[in-house]
Amino acid sequence: MDILEKLDELGIKYEIQEHESVYTVEDLKEVFLKMDGIGCKNLFLKDAKKKLFLYTLPEDKRADLKLLPEKINSKRLSFANENDLQTNLNLIPGSVTPLGIINDKEQNVTVVIDKALKNNKILIHPNRNTATIGIEYADLIKFIKSCGNDYLEI
Known about the structure:
This protein is α/β, with parallel strands linked by helices.
């Protein structure tokens, strides 16, 4: 199912802006977004037991991968590989987004969301890096629950 169709089906309001391909937060800073919200970075991670996590945090916050495992009841984290990204979320590097769990039919990925995003409008990719979508934090949680994936707020 197309991500925008799913958001419409769930009654989730969103804004979308098309733009050139961006692969990093730095690339996105070159694009003039005409919407308000907190820009996010998304890290696709794997722990020592091969459990997968998608960590969404504000674009200007540093991800501490040494402290994160303790917060999510895990062990050593590293970046998951491109094959894991493709197999589980059907995404390519540069387009990682929590909305990718729409493709995670076996609910292998746990979404980890930084509490700094709570009660805010957030800006994320709609499963491709040629657009940015703005949705409310509460609506992201609604979306995650509809997909059946586990999530943690840290």
